[in-house]
Write a structure and sequence with these properties.
By secondary structure, the chain is α+β, with helices and mostly antiparallel strands. The protein has one helix and four strands; from the N terminus they run ββαββ. A hairpin with a 5-residue loop joins β3 and β4.
Length: 74
């Protein structure tokens, strides 16, 4: 969705309370966003010069320790 600039479909993969930190990828916009609307706005405004990084993995959630911390296996 990011490569094709299909920003309208991002609501199918991101939650409304998404926290996005891409400081190295989007330095002009600050790289950090809180919430769906702010994240989509930053991605739309990243322009043609934005870097992309593709990481593909399967993650198995082993234990949710807290809302911010989990034990996973990838």
């Amino acid at each position: 969705m990011l490569d094709t600039k299909n920003h309208t479909a991002l609501d199918t993969i991101l939650t409304q309370d998404v926290v996005f930190d891409a400081t190295d990828l989007l330095p002009v916009t600050g790289g950090k966003t809180n919430g769906f609307a702010q994240t989509v706005a930053a991605l739309r405004g990243s322009g043609a010069g934005a870097k992309t990084d593709h990481q593909i993995t399967n993650v198995l959630l082993l234990e949710e320790i807290s809302a911010e911390k989990a034990r996973v296996n990838s």
